[in-house]
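stuck on whats below:

***
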Amino acid sequence: MRSERLQGYSLALVAAALWATLGLFYRRLEGYGLPRLTIVFYRAAIASVVLFLVLGWRRPGSLRLRRRDWPLFLAFGLLGVAAFFVVYIQAIALTGMGVAAVLMYTAPAWVTLLSAVFLKEPLNGFKVGALLLAVGGCVLVGRAYDLASVRLNLAGILAGLGAGLTYGLYTIFSKVAQRRYTAWVTLAYALGLGALFLFPLQSSADLLHAATSPALVFWLLMLGLLPTLGGGIAFNAALRRMEASNASIVATLEPAVAALLGWLVLGERMEVPQLVGAGLILAAVVVLQGEISNVKCQTSFDA
């Protein structure tokens, strides 16, 4: 049990590291003049097509969904994928990348609350402490302390909080779906349906431009396979081994890794408060590791 939970934490960390590369891919693709809405459509579509092809070849029977589960997956695709992608893009446009990231990473709070109510996950001191550390770390990593760079408005704040809620719903939907389906099948349908909901928002000219440019095709494939498919599978596999709230807290390492990659690859500055914020997020993970040890000690005592 303890080794499985540790595997879950490792997989959640892998997912966070892969998702942290999204900014690099977005920066590259936007440099070719591709709109973000088109980027996220192809991101979901490519990953889902690859998954369906692999599953159709290796395990075709696993792709059959029960009729009663279609509402769950439709809600997953609409709210956990399509709506999340759209509102997060709007939050970035209205408030800036740093503040949008901080608002999005209210997701662990949403997940912790929803998991306690709907999944009956326990709410203890370790989890609350880790949550506070993670949220505080995201505030610092996102440079929300720099008032000169913060652009706040009601629409932007609502979009950012909406991104946090829909990102949290992604975790909840995935946790529930994996009670009956594998991580691969869950992600395939979530991304596939999300891409279908995003399709009506696309410009045919932008879709054609992306599909006929070799450079764009290459970078879109890498975006779909590495952070989207790789990160999604790692996170879904983590959810099979740990509580949804804990997985969401561990994933807050993503903005810290993204800031580090921006510093190493793009030459972006990384300030002392951001380093402190990264340390707070790591501390949150350590606190959750302490929860594992506490569970082990209680189990030994009960035995």
Q: What stands out?
A: Confidence is low (pLDDT under 50) at residues 295-303.
